[in-house]
């Protein structure tokens, strides 16, 4: 059964929620595979396009997948059989990706992360990425344990575990570069996804605790929010949350 809803209609809704024109210069958000004119038979939401996600969407009869991570990020020099991009085209799948616009948008990734972690009265910084709020007067280690529990993370890394945290910032994904901004805004801790050795050294010099909870863990939380928003806007179309596994495993 075909519906009057087109891929373009879904794109326009997403553009209203998280305007594509607000994406960073290095980003690649938008309709990346398919046609705006194609009728939508079903929609799946996910963090990113993988073989697992494509197989589920195809099996469920969906022909549109909405993700956070772009299926094409760097210029593609080849599109080979078996790669997610080739499979998406081969299956006739349409793919809309909303990356940095959804990070910054009201009700987007970072608002969802702040809510999940329990920041009180979070506010947006000038960059649009950080959400800054207060927490109970707890140590960074206690905050990290709370973050691990609330995000279902296998492990969380941090520096300065004994530092008292009263004000904290969150930035999903790879937000360690915003540590100085968070510190300048009075934060005792920054919660993000990815962080390397030198990021933790920089955090110590700044006097801020950096809490790295995992890229997947801090961003996967937007997929069910997308499903809810799309299902509300297009009740005549089946919208499903596609299952996906964290590509990174932790060994206990």
How would you describe the overall organization of this protein?
The protein has 252 residues and is an alpha/beta fold. The chain has ten helices and eleven strands. The chain has a six-stranded mixed β-sheet with strand order 5-6-8-9-10-7, with helices on both faces. The longest helix has 12 residues. The protein is elongated, with a radius of gyration of 19 Å. The termini are far apart.
Quick rundown:
The chain is an alpha/beta fold.
Describe the secondary-structure layout.
Blueprint: H1 7-17, E1 30-33, E2 43-46, H2 51-59, E3 64-67, H3 84-90, E4 94-97, H4 100-104, H5 109-117, E5 120-124, E6 131-139, H6 140-151, E7 157-158, E8 164-171, H7 179-184, E9 189-192, H8 197-206, E10 209-212, H9 215-219, H10 222-233, E11 239-241
What radius of gyration results from the CA coordinates?
Answer: 19 Å
Strand order of the largest sheet: 5-6-8-9-10-7
Portion of residues in beta strands equals 15-25%
Task: Give the strand tally.
Answer: 11
Key terms:
elongated; 34% helix; alpha/beta; 252 residues
């Amino acid at each position: 059964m075909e519906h009057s809803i087109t891929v373009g209609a879904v794109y326009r809704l997403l553009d209203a929620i998280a305007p594509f024109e607000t994406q960073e210069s290095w980003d690649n958000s938008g309709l990346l595979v398919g046609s705006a004119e194609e009728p939508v038979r079903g929609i799946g939401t996910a963090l990113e396009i993988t073989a697992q996600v494509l197989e589920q969407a195809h099996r469920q009869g969906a022909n549109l997948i909405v993700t956070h991570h772009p299926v094409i990020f760097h210029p593609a020099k080849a599109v080979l059989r078996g790669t997610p991009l080739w499979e998406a085209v081969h299956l006739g799948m349409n793919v809309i990706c909303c990356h940095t616009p959804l990070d910054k948008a009201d009700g987007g990734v970072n608002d969802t992360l702040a809510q999940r972690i329990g920041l009180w009265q979070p506010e947006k910084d000038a960059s649009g990425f950080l959400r800054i709020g207060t927490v109970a007067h707890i140590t960074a280690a206690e905050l990290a344990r709370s973050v691990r529990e609330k995000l279902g993370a296998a492990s969380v890394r941090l520096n300065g575990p004994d530092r008292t945290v009263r004000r904290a910032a969150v930035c999903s994904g790879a937000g360690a570069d915003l540590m100085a901004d968070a510190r300048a805004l009075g934060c005792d801790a920054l919660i993000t996804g990815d962080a390397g050795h030198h990021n933790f050294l920089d955090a110590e010099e700044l006097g801020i605790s950096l809490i790295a909870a995992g890229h997947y863990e801090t961003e996967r939380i937007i997929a069910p929010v997308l499903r809810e928003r799309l299902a509300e806007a297009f009740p005549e179309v089946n919208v499903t949350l596609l299952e996906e596994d964290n590509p990174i495993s932790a060994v206990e």
